[in-house]
Amino acid sequence: MKPRIYHEETVRAVHTMALPNEVRSVAETWVKNRTTGEWIDLTSLASGWTLSLPPSLFNADVFHLTGLPNTATVLDARSETQRVDTTAYLPGQPRICVHNGQRVLNTWSLGGVDAVAGDWSLIDRTLRHLMPDDHREKFLDAVACLVKRPDANIAWGLIFRGQVGTGKTLIFEGVMSRLVGVGNYKRLEGDVIASKFTAELGDVQVLYLNEVVRPNDKQVANRLKSPTSEAFINAEAKGLSTSPKRSPSFIVVSSQAHRPFPLENPERRWDTPPFVGNPLDPMLGKALKDNMDAQCSAFLWYLREERDITQFDPGEPMWGGCYEPDEDEVEDQTTAKLNDALAEIATGMGTCELALLPDLMKMVEAALGWTPKAGQFSEFLTGAGWVCIGKLHKGRQGNPGIWARVDGETWKSVTYPALHSHLVAHGVIPK
User: Fold this and answer.
1) Do 386 and 394 meet the contact criterion of CB atoms below 8 Å apart?
2) What is the mean pLDDT of each run of 10 residues along the chain (431 residues)?
3) Helices in 103-196 by DSSP H: which ranges?
4) Does residue 151 contact residue 92 with C-beta atoms inside 8 Å?
5) What's the count of helices (H) and strands (E) in the chain, helices before strands?
6) Buried b (16+ CB within 10 A) or exposed e, 123-135
7) Which pTM does this prediction carry?
8) CATH for 121-306?
9) What are the residue boundaries of the structural domains of the chain, listed by start?
10) How far, CA to CA in Å, does 86 sit from each of 44, 98, 125, 150, 422?
């Protein structure tokens, strides 16, 4: 529609007369920041970014609506124009409120899907794939707190580790952004935490740090200490002075690495579910993606109306979190335990220098509480210095191997009757 162009006398009269509908609609959707002189578009807040314009650009932006060349001047002279002293991100508070003695425009917006009772089993099944029961219950309490008490800061975050295709994007992006609203959700790539500039980390309810891989950077935990444990952070941006910003209500870190960044052990600011190596059932993932909005609406209903969080304290740190060993570390630890067990067995053998493989495996099982596979165990024996010198003739369990703990090459040259006599003399086999 072609904008109405007002004559000069009409513009002057607007200061005192009732505002035309076109101008009134602008007055209802824009707020003036008295400190900066800029005009802020209220309709932009729900999208996660704030449109703030100086008077000249504001006039140009709304000219097609008002037909006035100086809308800022007109509105600034009106008592009904909305004005604030500053802006702040204050989840759960009214759009314009008083905070720390100032009239504040709250940039937080209640958003997300509508809560509707229904089926959220696809989300539940995906969560069960991502986390064991105890970790999932903690996560559900935290997410329920986000939607029931948006003003609360949760004093710990979640570190999810898993291979590609586990379903983490469906939950930590698709579901979480719909629960709190896109304006209160932010995804950043993991390398952002390597920077000293922290402005991007603040003024958001859910912060999702995607693919953090800094296993040797001991400063990462320190950089994320304030955002997970304090209500506000001193946000620093390049070329700008430091300013306070509200810490994220909840932080989720994802990574394909077993150790996204170093942690204390135990760690009180992070929950660390076990690494997920199995992909999500493709049919389940497709079903959730196709029914995302309906599933999230039902999930939100459950969190708001049915999930009991009376015993959940968002300010209570998460004690005991730590990374489980990765595959290489598990192998190293297994080798060390086997070597210790073999050393004890060798000591207990006294002057006997030979043993049968089944007997060794039973002794190791007694020492460790589990039985290694025969082939794997033979490799461990060889690595520990034991030597297979042959097999027992017509012996037990299909001619078991005879192993020497010392002087293996010498024992290889000994005749079988001598081997047999040594085993009989030390009670390894009957006469």
Assistant:
1) no
2) 47 55 89 94 83 94 92 91 92 92 91 94 98 95 96 93 93 96 90 71 90 82 80 66 80 90 80 91 97 98 97 85 63 70 86 89 73 72 88 72 90 90 90 79
3) 121-130, 133-148, 168-169, 176-180
4) yes
5) 17, 17
6) bebbbebbbeeeb
7) 0.68
8) 3.40.50.300
9) 8-106, 121-306, 327-425
10) 16, 10, 44, 21, 91
3-state secondary structure of 317: coil
Measured CA to CA, the distance from residue 76 to residue 116 in angstroms comes to: 43
Separation of CA 86 from chain center:
32
Residues belonging to the chain: 431
Q: How far apart are CA 409 and CA 379, in angstroms?
A: 17
CB burial of residue 418 (10 Å; 0-12, 13-18, 19+): exposed
Tokens at 407, concatenated: 């002087």
Q: Provide the 10 A C-beta neighbour count for residue 425.
A: 12
Q: How far is CA 96 from CA 28, 103, 181, 241, in A?
A: 13, 7, 19, 25
Helix axes 282-290 and 292-301, enclosed angle (nearest 10): 80
Identify the helix (H) or strand (E) that includes residue 115: none
Query: Which tokens in the block code for residue 62?
Result: 């709304």
Q: Treating both helix axes as pointing N-terminal to C-terminal, what angle do 282-290 and 121-130 enclose, rounded to 10 degrees?
A: 140
Does CATH place domain 327-425 in 1.10.10?
A: yes
Task: Please report where in the chains the tokens 């992070």 appear, as a residue.
Answer: 270
